[in-house]
Amino acid sequence: LTFAADTPVPAAGRGADDALSPSRAESRAERPLYATYGLILATFLGTMGLPHVVVRFYTSPTGVSARRTTVAVLGLVGAFYLLPPLYGALGRLYAPELTLTGQADAAVLLLPDRVIGGVGGDLLGALVAGGAFAAFLSTASGLTMAVAGVLTQDVLPSRAVPHFRLGTLLAMAVPLAASALVGGLPVADAVGLAFAVSASSFCPLLVLGIWWRRLTPPGAAAGMLVGGGSALLAVAATMGGLPGGGGALHALLAWPALWSVPLGFLTMVLVSLATPGRVPAGTAAILARFHLPEELGTEDLRAEGLRAEELRAKGLRTEEPRTEEPCTEAPRTGDPQAGTGRREETTR
Predict the structure, then answer these.
(1) CA 303 to chain centre
(2) Cα 303–306–310 angle (5° rounding)?
(3) Number of helices (H) and strands (E), helices first, in the chain?
(4) What is the pLDDT of residues 134-153, one digit of tens each?
(5) Are 167 and 14 a contacting pair, CB within 8 Å?
(6) Which long-range contacts (CB under 8 A, 24 or more apart) does 168-174 make?
(7) Is pLDDT above 80 for 29?
């Protein structure tokens, strides 16, 4: 087939198992700008709350190495996200027939052979396929370990190895059951919805917990429940194909991050302001330890801050540092310490 320049290429319809869910497809067609920014916000803010990403910071021995790792990872991720547009452009050049067949996702495996060809193309294609499977396994295992650790520490009776194994089974059983219930939902669609829930719950908690000293435990819990819960309900409604018929509500539920993330932030702030007496002891010192260079001795600062907060909580006054006035009286002969109230400094 030959198409003239600037002629739209007809695209074949795809099956229900490979397309967007009907609810999200309709909302994207009706409000493409809202859908685009909803997906962008969910992806950007949801990444910081992924448990298998946050847990990597535990492997950094110091704050300096953690910050360097963050900068390096941002650079690598930024370079990675340049590849999808590049793949799309190469696919239109070397495999344009995929648009007609509706199998455009096969371009990832076909391009190495089309661009290079021969043994080199086969080796590159095998490398791409192996890398994809390695990424699937590493992400799945990282998520399983992170969720199992949380269940073992906060939900199950003890942190023993048998309970950790039970947490691992639970961490695997819940997503498997959910995938069986919504088997027709595309993987990319499900990932976007999961990121929306993460952005609405963990993102406000991390941002305010690191930068706002007035955040309280009730505010954090309420914000996570309201923000994450509202996004989760929207996700469930979208998976169930509700509400039908399109409209503004249809788009709001299909792409919830644009309203659920601000709702989570607002709830945390309002509830924290309403419970000012629930700020944990030593919050100011801990935040100073977060943001000040480690060379300033922030360990001592944290200990002093915790002691001051404990005394303040008990209604006691902290002892103010006393300044000693230097004595102007000249020392008497034979008595080098006379006339001074502080330790003598001797210069040799």
Answers:
(1) 29
(2) 140
(3) 15, 0
(4) 988 888 888 888 888 888 88
(5) no
(6) 168/144, 171/143, 171/144, 171/147, 172/144
(7) no
* Other CB atoms within 10 Å distance of the CB of residue 124: 15
Mean local confidence (pLDDT), 201-214: 92
pLDDT for position 346: 42
Instruction: Please report the pLDDT score of residue 348 as a whole number.
Output: 39
In this structure, what are the phi and psi dihedrals at residue 38, rounded to the nearest 5 degrees? Answer: -65, -40
Sign of the alpha-carbon dihedral angle for 266, 267, 269, 273: positive
CA 273, CA 219: separation in Å to the nearest integer?
8
Q: Which two tokens stand for residue 272?
A: 């924290």
Q: Is 218 or 325 the better-scoring residue by pLDDT?
A: 218
CA atoms within 13 A on the CB side of 127: 9
Q: What is the mean pLDDT of the chain?
A: 78
Rounded distance between C-alpha atoms, residue 88 and residue 73, angstroms: 24
- Which secondary structure element, helix H or strand E, spans residue 282, and what is its range? none
Cβ neighbours of residue 26 closer than 8 Å, sequence gap 6 or more: 246, 250
> What CA dihedral angle connects 162, 168, 174 and 175, to 10 degrees?
-170
pLDDT recorded at residue 26: 62
Sequence-separated (6 or more) residues with CB below 8 Å from residue 310? 281, 282
Secondary structure (DSSP) of 170-224: HHHHHHHHHHHHTTTS-HHHHHHHHHHHHHHHHHHHHHHHHH-TT--HHHHHHHH
Is residue 60 exposed (0-12), middle (13-18) or buried (19+ Cβ within 10 Å)?
middle
Q: Where are the domains of the chain?
A: 22-279
Q: Which range is least confidently modeled, 6-10, 242-246, 303-307?
A: 303-307
Q: What beta strand segments (E) does 285-336 contain? A: none
- For residue 321, pLDDT beyond 50: no
Between the CA of residue 174 and those of 32, 46, 160, 183, what are the distances in Å? 32, 20, 21, 14
Are the beta carbons of 117 and 27 closer than 8 angstroms? no
**Computed over its alpha carbons, how large is the radius of gyration of the chain?**
29
Residue 32: count of CB within 10 angstroms of its CB: 11
